[in-house]
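Worked example 2:
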Amino acid sequence: MSIRALAMFETGWQKLSPIAVLFYVARTWYHVLGNVFSWLIPLIVFRQYILEHLLITSGVVIGLLALSILWAWVSYRMVSYQLDNNGVDLRTGVFNKQLLQLPFDRVQNVRIEHPWYFRLTGHCQLILESAGSSDQEIMLVALKPEFAERIKAEVLAVRTTVPSAHNPPQHDQQHLHQQHQDATLLNQRSVGDLVMYGIGSNRGWLIIGGLFPFYGYIEDRIEPLLYQLGIFNDGSLPIWQWLVTLLALFAMLMFVLTLFSIVIAVISYYDFKLYRDGDRYLARMGLLSRKEVAMPISRIQEVSVQQDWLDMLLRRRQLRYSQVGGMFESKNILVPAVTSSESQALLDDVYAQRDRNIKMTQASKWLLAVYATWYWLPLVALTTTVVVLLAGWSAGVWMLVPAVLLAGLYYLRWRRWGYAMDGEFIYLQSGWLGKKTTLIPLAKLQQPSLLQTPLMRRRGLMSIDWVTAGGVHRLPFINEAQARAMYDFALFEIEAKSPNWM
């Protein structure tokens, strides 16, 4: 950053606005609520004591709220930052002091976010991303939007130019502003699209499964209510009426969970817009908190298109761009509930040279045998044995139903596996009831590796791990000769072209 640009900002160590306390309070409770099961189980165990001592319970809750506010205030007081000609420095920590230094030429992306609690006060937060993990990011919170935009413009100006006497910063700012004005809108999602995304991404059945340990407690609370409503008053009620009632209750529960999923989808992705801004993608979204994710195209490690079984019924799919550090969802871009033609258009924009009609090769049938002997058979044998010991052989016979359903799932899992390779990409397909297709450019591979067990060697089979900066993808149980050919070709591409995976 030039001396002229730096003159716009105060020099030396600066403190954040006191409004930053809101951020630290929100972060504290986000972590608390994120570990829901760590405190939900004790609440259930000690529920009787809690209900009998409401005064003590209220005091504990008020004390925890006061403690979180005090901790937020102390955390805020320990934060300071400074801007100089080389970069930005950030000092944090109450007990463990930390100094994080990020040179401007190492900044990969700059984004400004507007959480709901800052939107009430007219503030925002500025995030400077590096090529490393999220621990190497610098976040300046409770900034005025004009000040954050000035920092962002100066940092991006440094990134988009080579410093010289013939290329002053003012020219860079004009170029950057013009580039932003010329951004092309690639995709936007309506509320109707987000409703479909909420329906397709509903995980209500997982929540129902997670409540299994508490079914006894739930039954003790619901059964008296059902009798009061007159549903189970008659002990001779036909079995079909019991089943209809249970199905109706299940449908009501799923409706509530689906409605909740839709609300979350709308809040998270409201007014979603995806732009192409020169050599990067820019996504903006959010109802309560406006979020911006910028992703340089050169950092994209893979693109995947996923359809769950509900998405198939709705004829929609989710398209995800994954970049370096892709294990952090905040760094990826998800385009929700796109149609087939929309997903093809987005894929054509990022990977124009891909083969749209490539034929997938299926994994070996020996993979299905492994599923059966190592996963399906032990699980069925264990659960059936437990049921027989607890409830007798008559109940054990009914275990044939879930056993057949589980066998069908593993069969579908094997059928979904597919792979292909051309001169530019690796194509992988997987899934259970749904389907996920992943495109990995050969230029983004870091190091493929071959795996072979003695059993696989006897059958002439191998597995390959495709390693990128975004993660590892295993291709299981394919023909050994084909696996070695793919491995050799990938190594040749890596060594001959020396691609820049960043």
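Residues 157 and 176 are 7 Å apart (CA to CA). The two ends are 23 Å apart (CA to CA).
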